[in-house]
Give the backbone structure.
Amino acid sequence: MKPSDIKILIVDDEASIRDALSQWFELDGYNVSSAEDANAALLKLQQEPWDIVMLDIKMPGIDGLELQRRIKKIDKNIITIMITAFASVETSIQALKEGAFDYIVKPVDPDDMSHLIRNAVEQRRLMYENSQLRQHIDDISYSDEIIGESTEIKKVLEKVLEVSQTDSTVIIKGENGSGKELIARAIHSQSNRKYFPIITINCGAYSDGLLESELFGHEKGAFPGALYRRQGRLEMADKGTIFLDEIGQISEKMQADILRVLDTRQFSRLGGDKKIDVDFRIICSTTHDLERAVQEGSFREDLYYRLNVVTISIPPLRERKLDIPALARFFIKKYSQSMNKNVLDISQDTLDMLVEYNWPGNIRELRNVIERAMVVAKGNLVELDDLSFFFPVVEMGSEETLPSLDEVEKIHIQKVLELTNGNIAQAAGILKVSRLTMYNKIEKYQLKKSRNDLPR
Amino acid sequence: MPYIYIQPIKTDHSLWIDDLEKSVYSVFGYHTKVANLDINLEKTFDQARHQYNSSQILLQIISRPPADAVKVVGVVNVDLFIPILTFVFGEAQLRGIGSVIALHRLNNIFYGLSEDRGLLKKRLVKEAIHELGHNFGLIHCNNQSCVMRSSTYVEEVDQKSEEMCSRCQELLRGLL
């Protein structure tokens, strides 16, 4: 905010005070105007917005205190500063109680005046910044990133809107890469908690002890290596939302701990006694069938019913093929901007190929494929050739040229690992094999876990 | 040929006029002349505050400027005030013809120190360039060393230089 963006109104019945203050503030570059009484001031206040009003407490007609009350009715965010003679300091205190930013006793030291106005301007700037940020948050709608016209996705969006207005716990079910976190963010961004954070924790990525420390935080010296006190994710999510990704992968002990926090809304940091009160909403996601886990006894029934207030199931991409063209075009637009490339669309035959494919890695896989195609795309259309890494043209030649089963398996596992950025658990999920099998295959074929490991 | 006029009021200008002339010419490109306006200082004295009303002196300075005056700067050796503030080092009309500077609080004697004429001259030059800058349309600058930085203590006057920062110089070029 430039000084000229700040509008100051001076209200005083003494012309010499009005002129002196106006000139003083004009030299700082502020946009200044003055009024000789409350009526003239109210007229100006109704005509245009003001940032700061300096007003004399004692004026004929409506006095400063009453004028301040009327100003606050017009705009409660206007900063008011009272001008007073020594005799009316008590009135100034009354004005402070009624919302004045500060008061000055005539005559005031120039340095005090400079500080006062600088602080008032800073306060106003922060208010403005705060309202801009809130507006920005209001404008961000993760729903805009949930692309699709299919009935399946429309149902999901309807449910998102429905649950975002409540504080209920939500379980989001869906395959890897189907956009569970995006749905969680969409719920949060449309809820009353949107001005507070949404904190994500991938439960599957941590060992038991680490997850406990991540969730609850720890005191200094709680365990070897705990050099400092650390705030846990639950504390960070206070007044906001905590998104527990892959809830199905937590141990029985953690299940009990989470259940206790859910019931009491209180917890202690590791190694600490102090109870910390938190106010958060839980959204969890799972790729596992939690009901079966409950039946098998690996997931607590009471926690399941506590979490399962609302369930949102995201259909896999293969069940909403109608949305593939729109999604592909969305990613093309996105990467055109970030890669600064003039790729505008995708050719029809390429699109047909994408629609036909089964997409075991769901939208994440589609996104990665488009990203890679965009890197190699030459013209302003994504062509079939740009996807040759993904749909290799297999020429049925002689026996010698056909790949062996091992070779095909190796290529396929490598491709899935690249798509999951080396996440073995995720890759194992896509390939429907155990993690141990994945490790064995990686060892057997000497595979690289991610693109970053690939030779450049 | 237009000039920037310096109006000494109850002060011996021979002590500082050469330094002021040089600095004003180097910053604004105008030569200076000493004015001889009829200023009634006593009329501006406030019995209750034992200070002189800066705005009233300024009104007298601008009421009859010399015909070839582009700006007129009054330099007075008394303590000045404006009604809302306890004191001012000076006062200027933004984009106007006149300004006034008080030597009283620029002088070490006011702070119980021994007189330092060299320092007083430096302070006067800084304040004169500052107020003339306002007359030409410049507002306060946030640059620590720029002469257009606002100073409410004499220490702040000492901290800043006699020069304008590059941004203020550029703005001034557009205003001259």
Notes: Chain A has three domains: 3-138, 151-315, 318-453. The first helix of chain A runs from residue 15 to 26. Chain A has 18 helices and 16 strands.
